[in-house]
Amino acid sequence: MNKKYRRCIIAGNWKMNRTPSQVRGFVEELRGAMPASLRGCSVVLCVPATHLHALSSLRSRRIAVGAQNVSEFESGAHTGEISAEMLRDLDVRYCIVGHSERRQDNHETDKMVSAKVCALLDKGITPIICVGETLEQRERELTLEHIAYQVKAALSGLNAEQVRRCVIAYEPVWAIGTGRTATAGQAEEVCYAIREMLRTRYGALISRKVSILYGGSMNGDNCAELLAQPDIDGGLIGGASLRSGEFAKIVAAGCAE
Known about the structure:
single chain, alpha/beta, eight-stranded parallel beta barrel, 8 strands
């Protein structure tokens, strides 16, 4: 992390877990376990849509409300979808877009991801843009090319100021929910490449300001080594974010100098 230029972000992704009635108890446990001072670290919980009101109603100043998905459409006949305006009304500050599970299970394209990024920025919500390669792509040494394409596609049409308001999360698909984790060196290599691509396209000032997170089985045991890398500015945490004590340990690592 480089806190001189950017804020550390520790974002939990609950995926399709827990119930709305369990939100308050979890948040109370997490508050008690987190460091007294977050010292340049933002903590986010990205919960299912059914849980957003419960989390928002707690009005926690230490835990930001995050969503897991948004519609690319502003309103209209899109049954089951949730607009950025609806999220803003629930005090949502962050929203995950382009997660590999949605790309695979819901057939989300790069064009859809780009549209969702624009919808969120228009409502003042920070998109957490997920990119990542499959095991086959890594083995064929296509990782950096694939990641560069995903990032460029997601940011297509944005100006430098809009890009500055985005967060990018590198999540190797082969490490999500598998217990396998990229080594600190592998993760740093990709995050550095993302930052260099941003520098080339948008300038050094913007590239220094964009937070780049690592996801893919980050936990309480490996977080310190990963977060010590200069271009890893936080984590998008899956399974570990469901355990308040372990999630708090990752937050503590993010708060460390």
